[in-house]
Design brief:
The structure holds two protein chains of two kinds. By secondary structure, chain A is an alpha+beta fold. Helices cover about 35% and strands about 30% of the residues of chain A. Chain A has one domain (about 25-110, about 120-145). Chain A is built from five helices and six strands. In chain A, the strands form two sheets. Chain A has a four-stranded antiparallel β-sheet. A two-stranded antiparallel sheet of chain A has the order 3-4. The longest helix of chain A has 19 residues, at about 1-20. Chain A is flat, with a radius of gyration of 18 Å. Chain A starts with a helix and ends in an 11-residue tail after the last helix. In chain B, helix 4 crosses helix 7 (about 175-205). The longest helix of chain B has 30 residues, at about 175-205. Chain B has two domains: about 25-100 and about 115-205, Double Stranded RNA Binding Domain (2-Layer Sandwich), CATH 3.30.160; about 205-310. Chain B is of the alpha+beta class. Classes of the chains: A alpha+beta, B alpha+beta. At the A-B interface, strand 4 of A face helix 4 and helix 7 of B.
């Protein structure tokens, strides 16, 4: 009985820990112009209670947005679909993304620190930054991991 | 025990490896007719009193902007594991082949290489999927604005399978090649994702082809001939029903001497695990008609992956 309880407790803690390790701040994403070949340039607006957000948080939001939301910008006549197909893909490959969004994501983007702008709205801060996402490498690595299909899969 | 397990694993994996390779369609980028027309690259040809306008691809490949765009698209597609047929190289190769064929003589009799009129007609730049690219440059005062269009057509079903077009943001200073490069980079991902949907459908529902059956003149065969109390048209229709994926096909035209089937979904592999194409599919029908009760000889004149043609009556 004791063993069963201990096992149950360990499993519960694992589940809680797994949920806890993958969190993303509320954000909005939009296109910020055509990037160099193989990359997207996006503008990420993060909502936070703190005004000093780490660059990595912007990269995480940008990579997440490129993968599952896609982005557009009416002024720049820019529109891109989500790289992973849709938000459903995040659930389908939950195990992969739990690990991916802990550290791997940082290899696929870079925030331009000079682009940062902070606005205070009531008790929260809206912080904007421009991020370059290396979408070609991101796509290739996700294809290799079997998360998304390549154009030549099956041929 | 270990050995048995290994053998069982290999037996299980072998068909998977066999089924992993469907025939890759050939893809080629060409300039759109509209682009050729606007750049004065159309040839006029008189045809039965009518004037036909045909794109002059030989001249088009000398346009630096066009070749820049085609090269960029080819590069981006190659990165996705889908290298494309290059239009300018294909055209050079056709010319060289024609010249070589005309000069090749037998060492004993001096005979030239035999080829039919159809061989000559088929000697043109062709691919299973054609990507048409075009653009227009508009000037708004000092600003330049580029409208870019990219669309993919299934060369055999004539269906548009992917498209991404639009007007890029205006620019004061960018040169035309820079505007074009931006447009290609901006539009490519959306275009490729539509192409992916087409390939996904291909794997899920089979390859879509069209089938045309004809009769050689003077052979006395007609699709209204009866065998075992049923017309030949109906017997062929039944064969189609049995041999298409989920019985999906459409008999769009049936006359005494011609049957046209459209939206025919054929399996990607035959019963031996080999990649199936229109030629192999229609060859099975040829064998079916060769046997009793039909005993009809026919000629498979299929060329390419997706358009099957069988002419009944002779070889």
């Amino acid at each position: 009985m004791k063993k069963t309880l201990v096992s149950f407790f360990v499993m519960l803690m694992c589940a809680v820990y797994a949920q806890a390790q993958y969190s993303i701040l509320p954000y909005e994403i939009k296109g910020a112009g055509t990037g160099a070949q193989g990359s997207y340039v996006v503008e990420v607006t993060v909502t936070s209670k703190k005004s000093n957000i780490n660059d990595d948080e912007f990269v995480k939001c940008a990579v997440h947005g490129v993968l599952f939301k896609g982005f557009f910008n009416d002024d720049l006549r820019q529109s891109q679909k989500p790289l992973a197909g849709s938000a459903m893909s995040e659930e389908q490959h939950a195990d992969f993304f739990q690990t991916f969004f802990v550290s791997s994501y940082s290899n696929y983007g870079q925030a331009l620190s000079t682009s940062r702008r902070v606005t205070k709205v009531k008790k929260e801060y809206k912080i904007k930054a421009t991020v370059t996402v290396n979408k070609d490498q991101l796509r290739k690595d996700l294809e290799a991991a079997g998360v998304i299909k390549g154009l030549n899969s099956g041929f | 025990m270990k050995k048995i397990f290994f053998i069982l694993t290999m037996v299980a994996l072998f068909p998977m490896a066999m089924l992993g390779q469907a025939k890759k369609p050939t893809i080629m980028v060409i300039p759109s007719d509209v682009w050729c027309s606007e750049n004065g690259l159309m040839i006029t040809a008189e045809n039965l009193g009518n004037t036909d306008y045909i794109p002059d691809y030989e001249q088009a490949v000398l346009n630096a902007d066009l070749m820049g765009v085609i090269t960029k698209i080819n590069g981006l597609m190659a990165e996705r594991g889908m290298p494309l047929k290059d239009m300018s190289q294909t055209m050079k190769s056709i010319k060289e082949d024609q010249a070589l064929r005309d000069q090749t003589l037998s060492s004993t009799s001096g005979a030239t290489v035999a080829y039919t009129t159809k061989d000559v007609l088929l000697d043109r730049a062709k691919a299973d999927i054609i990507i048409e690219v075009g653009w227009q440059l508009h000037k708004k005062g000092p600003q330049k604005e580029l409208t870019y269009s990219l669309r993919a057509l299934d060369a055999y079903t004539n269906k548009q399978i992917a498209e991404n077009s639009g007007t890029m943001p205006p620019s004061y200073s960018a040169t035309v090649p820079v505007l074009l490069e931006e447009a290609v980079l901006e539009k490519m991902d959306g275009f490729v994702s539509q192409l992916q949907v087409f390939f996904d459908d291909l794997f899920a529902n089979g390859r879509e082809i069209s089938v045309r059956l004809l009769v050689f003149d003077g052979t006395g065969i007609s699709f209204e001939d009866e065998f075992d109390g049923e017309e030949l048209t109906d017997m062929i229709d039944n064969w189609m029903y049995e041999n298409t994926v989920s019985h999906r096909y459409n008999l769009s035209m049936a006359t005494e001497y011609r049957l046209d089937f459209e939206q025919v979904r054929i399996p990607l592999y035959d019963e031996r695990g080999r990649a199936m194409d229109a030629r192999r599919f229609i060859n099975n029908l040829r064998k079916y008609l060769r046997d009793a009760p039909f005993n009809i000889t026919s000629k498979n004149t299929t060329s390419g992956l997706g358009k099957a043609e069988l002419i009944l009556g002779e070889k």
